Amino acid sequence: MTADRSHQVPPTPPPATVQHRTASTLLGLVVPLGVLATATAVASSWRDDLPAPVAIHWGSAGADGFSSLTTLLVSTAAITAAFVVALWALAFWRGHARPVRQLSAGLSVGTATLVAGMTVGTLAPQRGLTDAADAGGIGWAIALAMVVSALLGLAAAALTPRSEPAPGADDPRPDAPRIALAEGERAAWVRRTSSSTGVLVLGTATALVTVAVVVGSSWWMLVVPASLVLLMAAMFSWVVTVDSTGLTVRSSLGIPRRHLPVGEIVDATVDTVSPLRDFGGYGWRTSTDGRTGVVIRAGETLEVRSTGERRFVVTVDDAGTAAALLNSFADRARKTPAG
């Protein structure tokens, strides 16, 4: 007698092997700590040329905060190193999905470069001075550090290796929604999803910073509101597409972008999420249970399981239709012989 498998619970798959740990360690730990160590060494080599104490804070009237060089270097290096190690641990132990590793590497390299650049950039004008209060403005140094750190952070994210296709050992859930498609029939589903709350918050912040820049005539600080505008376009407005190739989620800016190939998709379902409770915030997020995705509002969410126990979510309207169509395409891909 043949057993009826329709009501059997699929066996629990073995734990997924965490890939790219070597690359995560190199990009997310070795590189940023190397940048930080180099900047600290350079600043230390200037000790005899710097005033004591050195200036560490500037106001509208110039330098107005001071500290010993040792305190400055030790505190900044320790705090930044702890942040880098925490991000590396996230990528090393929870980096099943490439976006998690990209986020960790990008933030690690970017933050370390920013701190290193601001440290060296603010100490360089003080060389040869007897009184740190005589140090000039540091706007150029901060602006340069911000630009370079952003570029290097993006480069680290881009260099993060892609996830290798995992074996299709996972079984799709039989109760997952599906849309009947005739053999060879083509179909697509496209939706735009955005967060009015995120746009309002960042839009208000952008306006306030812009007013402060204009009033203070600190024109180099315009890089801050410009960055906030790019952040709004990159994090709070997305286009979600389901077609025969799989699922594609991209921001209105074009990056970030995520594509889940149909051949790696196990199944798709509909869920509801709370950004703060489930993901600790809004935007491109990762949760403690290993899910990653675009979470920009509470409510209806498309959740996609991929081979290797990877789960990706995106908050979007009409998620049921997207899930059903994606499941149908995944079924078709499994029935099509490879090659």
From TrEMBL:
<feature type="transmembrane region" description="Helical">
    <location>
        <begin position="26"/>
        <end position="46"/>
    </location>
</feature>
<feature type="transmembrane region" description="Helical">
    <location>
        <begin position="199"/>
        <end position="222"/>
    </location>
</feature>
<feature type="transmembrane region" description="Helical">
    <location>
        <begin position="228"/>
        <end position="249"/>
    </location>
</feature>
<feature type="transmembrane region" description="Helical">
    <location>
        <begin position="105"/>
        <end position="125"/>
    </location>
</feature>
<keyword id="KW-1133">Transmembrane helix</keyword>
<keyword id="KW-0472">Membrane</keyword>
<feature type="transmembrane region" description="Helical">
    <location>
        <begin position="137"/>
        <end position="159"/>
    </location>
</feature>
<feature type="transmembrane region" description="Helical">
    <location>
        <begin position="66"/>
        <end position="93"/>
    </location>
</feature>
<protein>
    <recommendedName>
        <fullName>DUF1648 domain-containing protein</fullName>
    </recommendedName>
</protein>
<keyword id="KW-0812">Transmembrane</keyword>
